[in-house]
Amino acid sequence: MAGHKTQTTELIGPVVMTVLGPISADRLGRVLVHEHLRIALPGEEFDPRSRQSRRSVERLCELKEHGLGTFVDPCPMDLGRDVELMAEVSERSGTDWAIAKDRRSSAAAAMNQMSGLE
Ligand SMILES: [Zn+2]
Question: How far is the CA of 34 from the centre of ligand 1 (A)?
Fold first, then answer.
């Protein structure tokens, strides 16, 4: 399974904030701009987090093999945003996740946050 390499050198140029910290925009590769790692609907509490994480990592590793490595998740808090789960899945899958940071958000706001416009 691909591990995530957190960027530890000084960042020069455009930077994107991800769930694991800032990365250089140069390493984004192909980006999917409106993907939800998780949305909590009634009954979600019966799906253990470890199972969600395992399934997500498996699928993201498959997508990474097809050249997709960066995702923007605009999920608002009240729809089940789970930053700890995102960080765990990002680390284990080797994918980068830029997420909404406000209580309510939209894909456009997440993209603006990602690009430093907000
Ligand atoms: Zn959405």
Answer: 6
